[in-house]
Amino acid sequence: MKVTDDSKRVFFYHYNKPASRSAKKPQISVHWKGVCHIVDNVCVSAFSKGHVNKRQPYFVMKGVGRVSIFNNVAIIT
Q1: Distance between CA atoms of 62 and 70, rounded to whole angstroms?
Q2: Any bridge partners for residue 59, and if so which?
Q3: Cβ(12)–Cβ(76) under 8 Å?
Q4: For residue 21, how many C-alpha atoms fall within 13 Å in the half-sphere facing its CB?
Q5: In 9, 15, 21, 32, which residue has its Cα 20 to 30 A from 50's Cα atom?
Q6: What is the pLDDT of residues 2-37, one digit of tens each?
Q7: What pLDDT does residue 6 have?
Q8: CA–CA separation, 69 vs 37, rounded Å?
Q9: Which residue, among 52, 57, 67, has the nearest Cα to 14 in the 3D structure?
Q10: DSSP type of residue 14
């Protein structure tokens, strides 16, 4: 699957325990442009910071950048 866009937008990502259990391997949820992408790995070169939520997921990483997904790996610049 290949997803690309040139616009910089707010993104956030976190570990997805339910998806990891079903896939029997670690899965990361990358939220961008109102869509949740389940990926195997994340490569981040954009500035991001941790954010604590009152409800699950309790800890997410947030930032502003561009998201591309190649071979089930999210590349965030």
Answers
A1: 20
A2: 52
A3: no
A4: 2
A5: 21
A6: 555 567 899 999 999 999 999 999 999 999 999 999
A7: 64
A8: 9
A9: 57
A10: E
What's the total number of domains in the chain?
A: 1
SS3 state at 19: helix
Q: Tell which residue, 69, 71, 57, has the closest CA to residue 16.
A: 57
d(CA 66, CA 16): 21
The C-alpha atoms of residue 7 and residue 54 are separated, in whole angstroms, by 30
Q: How far apart are CA 9 and CA 31, in angstroms?
A: 10
Exposed/middle/buried for 44, CB within 10 Å: 0-12, 13-18, 19+? middle
Q: Is the pLDDT of residue 43 over 70?
A: yes
